[in-house]
Structures are given as structure tokens and as C-alpha cells.
Specification:
The protein is of the alpha/beta class and about 375 residues long. Helix content is about 30%, strand content about 25%. The protein contains eleven helices and 17 strands. The longest helix is centred in the middle third of the chain and has 20 residues, at about 155-175. The two termini are about 15 Å apart. The protein binds zinc ion (2 copies).
């Protein structure tokens, strides 16, 4: 086979268009991956619906696939494990350049100024294969990849790359949580559910998850949330803050994780954080504009506020360990699977909040 197909974003709200591409000849250090699973992320839906989004783009930045070729030269993944063609690997949406100011001086490679994007960015030149919704992805030599343990099935690897990895990274940035800490998670999408999982595995005391729709909160409970606050019942900020205080001996939570993506959640979150507590803002992946916050609560509460963007290969490795332990009941997390041809329906499903996690599932083999 010398060609492959990918669903391509060609304009706001338009159906993704299946296009054919040549399979590239690899240069030294490059890797060709045959995709197995790609997460259909809320960010994809935002880009798909945004009238300002440039195109064409192949979506897919939460990826699990199998190395087809290139491992015989590259030999190792990004965390020192030996790789060979045929291995299952995890990778995300960014290959940092490793030499810009942000990579080297700020040491924030997830925000690299120059690198190659996967699942984002216009595909303007060969080899074009830059997103996991497509059958194949071409990885440049600087792209991070982590080999999956042989015992871990692709679905669990996928869960490591959706939600859990971002929390492993964010928790590291804020210096983790202490055993017994109370945690409030704002949001019950993949990042919020990942926050519940990582909090539970980090030894949290009581975990409260705030979100909607109800079926996602039920999943949050199965993953380890002790209490849920349903946005369809507690409709105002005052009600939700009061409820959190009731559940935390009136003090608020030691740690609050913002995973909802709603800009208005930030003012609410700092009001839920206990004196001396930490507020981790993970969910604001798109710029949804300015919202008022009352900074008095940050000063008076002596809060530590952290932001975290994406994750690095070491976080994927740890996320995979967390979901592969068998302690996390992951069975009900992937609720919707779409073929590449039905990717547009996948975007619609995620936009209607019908799924817990939805994926593009490629044919194995
Ligand atoms: Zn994403
Ligand atoms: Zn860089």
C-alpha cells in the first residue's frame, strides 16, 4: 500500500472530508505510526465550530497507534525504553523543537514556539499526516512517544492520554497533594474525571466532583468521587460554594482543580479553596474571554494558584501506569466509538455532551 486516508477539517461546521495521501518515505529518526485509537477531544469540537479556524487540518492529538517503520533507526522512545516496529505507542499533539526560548530557557516544551503540531495546525506540505483521526501519522524525530507495556490494551492506553496525563502533569506542577487532602474537581468531562482518578491514586481524603450531565457524575463516583454536585440541581455559584463548604467542615477544599473550561468557574473555584489551599487551573484550554474574579479570596486565603498546559512523555508513562494498575475501573469511560468515516458524527456527539469519552477507532491489522 502506498496511500492512506484521513478525515480532513475543511471549514467550520462542515463535514470532515475523507482525503487520500501518499505514505511518506521516512528520513532518519522519523517514525510512521498506524493509528489504533484517537480521542475526540472537546478542543476538536471548538476548532470545528469556530468560524475563525484555519483549514485544512487533520484532528487527533490524543493518540495510540502501532509503529510501522522507523524504530530500527530511532531505537528508543522518549523515556528510554527500547522500541521496535510493531510496538504500541502513545503520543500527543506536539513535537517540541527543543531549541527555542520556551523549550530551553522557560523549560516549558509543551508550549514550544516552533515545533510540529499533531491534530492542530494547517497541513500545508508533505507528508501531511499530522493527526490521529487519519489512518497513519508521520512523527518527526523530536516527537515524543512512549511505548505501551505489552500487558496494557490500547483502550487503557487511550485513557492515559485523555484526561489522566494532563492531571499527572498539573499535579506535579502544584507539588502534588498530601494524603487526606480534600479535593474539589470542577468539571466532569475527561479532564475532570482524570482529576478524580489522580486525586484518588494520590491519597486524597474526600473528593467532590461538580459537573453535568448526571451520567458523567455517576462515572465520577465509580472512579472515586465521594460526593457529587449536579449543575442541573445546584444552579447558582452561591449554592455550589455553600454545598462545598458543607462537605468540607466549612473550610473549603485543600485542593481545587478547575477542569470545566468555563471561564466563570475560576471565581467560583477560588471561593471553594480553603485557607492555605491550592487552585489548579487545567481546563481553560480555549480563550473564552474575561470573567470577573474577586482576588480578595486569593490574598486573604493565601492561595497558591497554578496553571498547567498539556503534558510531557514522562507524564504519559505515569498516566499509563495509573490506568493499567487495574485499580481504576475504566470499563465505562469509553462510551462511543466511531470509524474514521463517521468522524463528523463523533464531533457532533461530543458537542452534545452525550459521551463520557468518544474515540476514533481504526481497523487493526
Ligand atoms: Zn485534548
Ligand atoms: Zn521549542
Amino acid at each position: 500500500m502506498t496511500t492512506c486516508r484521513a478525515p480532513v477539517f475543511v471549514g467550520p461546521n462542515l463535514p470532515l472530508e475523507i482525503r487520500e495521501f501518499d505514505l511518506p518515505t521516512l528520513k532518519e529518526g522519523e517514525i510512521l505510526v498506524k493509528m489504533r485509537l484517537a480521542g475526540i477531544c472537546g478542543t476538536d469540537v471548538h476548532v470545528w465550530q469556530n468560524p475563525k479556524s484555519p483549514s485544512p487540518v487533520i484532528f487527533g492529538h490524543e493518540n495510540v497507534g502501532q509503529i510501522v517503520s522507523g524504530a530500527e533507526i530511532r531505537k528508543f522512545d522518549s523515556v528510554g525504553q527500547e522500541i521496535k516496529n510493531g510496538d504500541l505507542v502513545l503520543f500527543d499533539g506536539k513535537a517540541p523543537c527543543g531549541s527555542c526560548h520556551t523549550c530551553v530557557v522557560a523549560r516549558a516544551p509543551t508550549l514550544c514556539e516552533r515545533g510540529v503540531h499533531y491534530g492542530f495546525g494547517v497541513i500545508s506540505e508533505p507528508p501531511y499526516l499530522r493527526g490521529g483521526y487519519g489512518e497513519y501519522v508521520h512523527l518527526v524525530p523530536t516527537a515524543g512517544l512512549v511505548k505501551a507495556s505489552e500487558s496494557v490494551p490500547p483502550e487503557r492506553c487511550m485513557l492515559a492520554m485523555i484526561g489522566v496525563h494532563a492531571n499527572v502533569s498539573g499535579f506535579e506542577r502544584m507539588g502534588g497533594i498530601r494524603p487526606g487532602d480534600t479535593v474539589v474537581v470542577q468539571g466532569s468531562g475527561p479532564i475532570g474525571l482524570g482529576a478524580v482518578v489522580v486525586s484518588r491514586m494520590s491519597g486524597a481524603g474526600r473528593i467532590v466532583c461538580i459537573g453535568a450531565p448526571r451520567f458523567r457524575l455517576e462515572v465520577a463516583k465509580e472512579l472515586g468521587a465521594d460526593e457529587i454536585i449536579d449543575l442541573d440541581e445546584a444552579r447558582t455559584q452561591e449554592e455550589r460554594v455553600r454545598r462545598v463548604r458543607e462537605l468540607t467542615s466549612a473550610r473549603g477544599a485543600d485542593v481545587v482543580v478547575e477542569a470545566s473550561g468555563a471561564a466563570s468557574a475560576v471565581d467560583e473555584g477560588i471561593r471553594m479553596t480553603a485557607i492555605g489551599g491550592k487552585y489548579l487551573v487545567l481546563g481553560q484550554a480555549t480563550d473564552s474571554g474575561t470573567q470577573p474574579i474577586n482576588p480578595y479570596f486569593i490574598t486573604h486565603g493565601q492561595l497558591s494558584v497554578f496553571g498547567s498546559w498539556a503534558s510531557e512523555p514522562r507524564h504519559w508513562l505515569k498516566a499509563m501506569r495509573i490506568v493499567s494498575e487495574g485499580k481504576v475501573p475504566t470499563g465505562k469511560l469509553i462510551t462511543h466509538r466511531f470509524s474514521m468515516r463517521n468522524a463528523t458524527e463523533g464531533l457532533r456527539t461530543v458537542s452534545r455532551l452525550e459521551s463520557v469519552i468518544a474515540v476514533i477507532q481504526h481497523d487493526p491489522g
